[in-house]
Every structure is written in C-alpha cells, then in structure tokens.
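Hey, quick one: can you model this chain's 3D structure?
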Amino acid sequence: MNVEDWKYDAFVKANGGKFSVLDFVHAVFAKVSLPQDFTLCMGRFFAPRMIMLDGIIVASDWFDGERYKEYRNSGMSPRQAQPWINMVEITDIFRGISFDNAKDLAALIAGLWDSRIIQNFPDEEARATVILENDAGEVFVTIGEYVKA
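Sure thing. Here's the predicted structure for all 149 residues.
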C-alpha cells in the first residue's frame, strides 16, 4: 500500500481501535520525507499571525500588500477588501480532499482563527468565515464578511 492510499479509519480498524490521530501523524511522517519546517508552516496555517492594518485584521503570514493596494485602488474599503486578502482555498491547498472533508476542515480552521481573533483582538467584530462554492466543489476560509460579487 502506498502512503497516498493510507486512510486513518483503516489504521484504527486494523489496530483494534487503538490507533490515535497522533499515531497516524507519526506513521505518515515516518514514511514520507517532508521538509523539517513543514510542521511549523502547518501550525502557522492553523494559527496564523494576525495584525491590524487600516482597522482590519489580516493574516500576516500570507498578506500580499500589492494585492491589498489593488483592491483598495479599485474602490473597496478596507472592510470590503478584508475577506479577499485573507481568503484561503482549502480545496486548492489540499488537492484531492473531498468536498465534505474540506467543509469539516474549514470549520475547524475557522474555529481556530476565531479563537486567535478573540484572544488578540477582543473588541473586533470580524470573524472567520467558511465559504462553500457547491457548484465548483470549492471550500474557502477567510476573515471578515464575504459578499459574493
């Protein structure tokens, strides 16, 4: 069996229910050679550094100042640009993930991002948002109020 075909549920079943999430992560990392800083990058994806810029929260780990200027120059207010500059497509990053699993992952990520927002910006109203594009099979997470154009 190739590591690409491994399934957590199958490992749990094969081990009589005595195979944890940590066991699975360990097994994958023991089998697949990944860069040493990959786990730190994943940690930052789930708990990004956030800053306040122009009165809005942005995930500084992937903030693109040029793109933000483009949105602002097109007439968007900072609040209108906020969801666009923070948007992450789960189904693009995790290629091959099912729509349902992407929705579950997006909900988990949004909860984690909200915790960071509440902790670091207790007076801020903006929250993480999950966006589902059912027809395209795409799932996104962002910060702020997304209004479909």
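One thing worth noting: The chain has two domains: 1-33, 42-143.
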